[in-house]
C-alpha cells in the first residue's frame, strides 16, 4: 500500500482543537484528506490509522481525557486496536488513551503547575520497536513543540520498568542549548511518548502536526509523521 | 492534627465541570443522576493541638489562600487523631 | 424585596448610578414612572459602559473610513478587507474591574467575550492578544493578580483553541488598586459573508442560544462604570464564571449555522446581557421586539424579569432567524448540546415588550434607550505637558554594561517568557510569529497571505502629554507591524482612564483621542472598533492613562516576513531613524 | 438521595498541587502545615432509595468514570435526606 492509499480517521470530541491541524498535516503528507469522525459514532469502517487529536475534549473536566475516554467512538477505537489496528494519540489524545487503559499510566498536572507551550528536543529511544518509529533512526533527535497543562507522565515503578524492558518508551525529552531544560513537565524518566505492548498504539505529548514546515517553526513533525505513515503503509 | 477542608462553589455559581460530568454519566446509562457539583477536598496536617486555635488558623488559611471566597464556600473538618 | 412591577423613585435610580436629570428624562419619555425592570434597563443602557456618554463626543473625531474598511465602529467588531475576498474582523475590549475582583474568571470571561464579538460577525477567530497593566511589581497584590490573570487568559484561550500571539504587560503603582486587562481578538471571514446585528422583518423569530441564564454578573455594566471602593469589594457575587468548553461549542455551532444561510441578524450577550442585545438589535433595525421571559432558559429558579434582563451569564447569543430556518438551526444546536429557544419575535412597534408570568413586565419605547442616552461634553482642565527629557541631558552614572543589566532586570523590560509560555501560541498551526517579537503573524489559512497584529501603549507618555502620547501609541503599533514586513491596515482601541467627571482626567481622555486620531489619519490606519473603560480609580486615585492601540496589518507573501532575531554571526547591524 | 464521593490520590502518587499549596501556606507564615494533599469532592443527587443498590450504583460510577483507579481512591458517603 502507498501512503496515499491509507485510510486515516481522526476522532473529534467536543472541545478537540487540534483536529483540523492534524487533518491538514495528514493531507500534506498523504495528499488525501482524512475523515473526521464525531465522538457519538460507535462504529467505524475498517481503517489503517486512527488519530486522537489534541485539544481540550470535554473541557478537560474531571480529568483530562476522562470524559472523551468514555464516549461511544472510543469503543470503536478499542475494537480497532484489539484487532491490531494502529492508533496515534497526541497530547489530549495521549491522555484519552491512558484514560481508556489502552496505554499504561496517566498524565498528571505539570510539575511546574503551569501550562507550557514551547519547543522541546526529544530523542527516539534506542530500544523502541514499533512501526510508529521504525522509520526514524534510534537515538535521533527531533525538535517538536509541546503545549499542555497535564503532560507529567506517571506510572507505577513496575509499569515503568516494564515499559523500559519491553522497549515501549518511544520518545524522551533531552537537554538542549536552545530549548532550555529538558523535561518541561516533570514526566517520569523524561518520557514524552510511549507505545502499547504490541507497538501499534502510540501516545505522545509533543505536537508533530505543529512542526510541518520550516516557516512554522520546523519540519521535524513532518519527518516523524511521514516515517510512521510509511511504516504503517508497508 | 489532620484537618480536611471541603471547598465547594457557592450556590448560583456556574459549575460547568459538574454539568459535563452529569451529562457523561447519563450517557453511560446512569439516568438516575442529577445536580452534579464538583468541589475540592484539601487535607492538611497541622501542628497545633488546641482545637479552637486550630480552627481559627485553618479558617485564616481558607480566607487567604485555600478558597476563593468570591465564588467558593469552605467547611473545615477536624479529624481526630488515632 | 422589590418586585419587578413596583414603581421606582429617584432613590432607586440613584442607587443604579443615574443622575437626577437622567431620572427626569426617563419619566418624561415614558410618560410615567418606570418599574424596577424598566429602570434597570435604562440604567444599564445609559451607563457609561453602554452609552459612551462621556467619550462619544471625542470618539466621533476619530477617522473611521478608508478604501478597505468594510465595517467601522458600531458593530460587534470592525471589519477590513485584506484582499482575495477575505476580511479581517477584530476588536479589543477591557475586563478591568472583574479581573481585579477575581483575576482568573475576570480575565477568562474577558477573552470569552471578545471572541464572541468576533465570531458574531461571521468570522472564525484566529488569534488573541492582550494588554495588561498591574501595580508595582513588589506590591502585595501584584503577584496574585498577575498569575491569576495570566492563568485566566490561558485558561480560556488555550481551551477554546485560539492562539495567543502577542500582548504587553507593564507595572506601575497607579494600577495597585485597579489593574487593566484588555483582550483583543482577530478573526477571518469572507468579505461578502459578514453578519450584523440589526433586526429585520417584523414577525421573524428571536432565538436565544448557548448557555443558561443564572444570577451571575447582574449589573456588571454599571459596575464597570463606577469607581472602586471597599464597598465594591463586597458586591463580589456579581462575578461571572467563564466556560471555555461551552464557548467552543457555541463558536462552532454559530459558525456552522452561519454557513447554512439561516441567520438574519445576530448579537452576542455581553455587558448588560439580554438588555443590550435585544435593545441594540431592535434599535439598529428601527423595529421593536417582544420577548416572553418565561421561555428564557434559566439555570436558577424564580428569576425575576430584572434579573433575567441584566444577568451577564457567559456564552449566550441572541439572533433573528429566517422564518423557515428554525428547524435547521435547532438541529445544529442540538448536535452541539446547546440550548436553543425561540423566545420572542421582531415587531414593528418600536417598543421593547417583555412578558412574564402572564403579565407585562416591561413596555418601553426603544428609541430613547439609545438615541436619548445622555451625551456629555465634560469640562477639561488642561495640564501643561511635562518638559521633554533630552537624552543628551542624562548623565551616565556607571558602566554601560551595568546599566544594561539593571535595565534588563526592571519589571518593565524583563523577559515576558514566563507569561507567554503559558499561552498556546501555536494551535491552529498557522502561527508564523508568536509572542516575543514585534508583532504576531498568522498565516491566512490555506493561502500565503499573512495578518500581523500588535497591541501598544506607553501610559507614562500619555500622562506626560496626552496628545503626543495618544499619537505615540499609534506610531509604535505602526512600527511594530511594519517591522515584521507587513502593511498596517486599521486600528482598534481601548481607552482606559480614570473618572471623566474630573476635568484633568477628561483632558487626558479627550486630548489623547485627538492625538490618536491625528496619527491614525496621517498613517492611513482608520479606527474600526474599540472600547472605552472609565472610572479606573480606587479611593479617588486614578490610573496612569492608558489608551491601548490594537493594530492589524497584512503581508501578501508570508515568506517575505522578517523576524526580530539575529540569525547568523557576522551580519551587519544598522540603526535607522534618529 | 444526596451522595458525596471523595476522590483522593493514592499514597505514593506525587501531588504537585498539594506541594505547591503547602509551600505557599508556609510562605504566608503558616509554618505549622505539612502533608497537604488535594482531592476532589463530587456531590450528586441520585434517584434511588434503596441504600444497598444506591451504594452499588455509585461504586460503578466511580469505577467507570469518576475516579482513575490507577492513581486515585474513592470513598462514598450517603447523606441522609432531611
Ligand atoms: N474607543 C473607541 N474607538 C472606536 N470605536 C469604539 C470605541 N469604543 C467603542 N467603540 C465602538 O462602539 C461600539 C460599541 O462598543 P461596545 O459597547 O464595547 O460593544 P459590545 O459591548 O457590544 O461589545 C463598538 O462598535 C465599538 O467598536
What is the CATH topology of chain A?
A: Rossmann fold
Number of helices of chain C: 20
Radius of gyration of chain A: 16 Å
- What amount of the residues of chain C lies in strands? 15-25%
What key attributes describe this structure?
heterotetramer; B: 82 residues; alpha+beta; Mth169, Chain: A; 3-stranded antiparallel β-sheet; 3 strands; 34% helix; C: 578 residues; 6-stranded mixed β-sheet; 24% strand; hydrolase (chain A); glutamine amidotransferase (chain A); Phosphoribosylformylglycinamidine synthase subunit PurQ (chain A); phosphoribosylformylglycinamidine synthase activity (chain A)
Question: What would you note in describing this structure?
Answer:
The complex is a heterotetramer, with one copy of chain A (234 residues), two copies of chain B (82 residues) and one copy of chain C (578 residues). Chain A has 234 residues and is an alpha/beta fold. Chain A contains six helices and eleven strands. Chain A has one domain: Rossmann fold, CATH 3.40.50. In chain A, the strands form two sheets. A nine-stranded mixed β-sheet of chain A has the order 2-1-3-4-11-10-9-6-7, sandwiched between helices. In chain A, α1 (19-30) packs across α6 (220-233). The N and C termini of chain A lie close together (6 Å). Chain B has a single domain, classed as Phosphoribosylformylglycinamidine synthase subunit PurS (Mth169, Chain: A, 2-Layer Sandwich), CATH 3.30.1280.10. Chain B contains two helices and three strands, in the order βαβαβ. The longest helix of chain B is centred in the C-terminal third of the chain and has 16 residues, at 51-66. Helix content of chain B is 34%, strand content 37%. The mean pLDDT of chain B is 92. By secondary structure, chain C is of the alpha+beta class. In chain C, strands 8-10-7-11-9-12-13 form a seven-stranded mixed β-sheet. A six-stranded mixed β-sheet of chain C has the order 1-2-3-6-4-5. Chain B binds chain D through residues 6-8, 18, 21-22, 24-25, 28, 30, 32-48, 57, 60-61, 64-66, and chain D through 6-8, 18, 21-22, 24-25, 28, 30, 32-48, 57, 60-61, 64-66. Adenosine-5'-diphosphate binds next to β3, β17 and β18 of chain C.
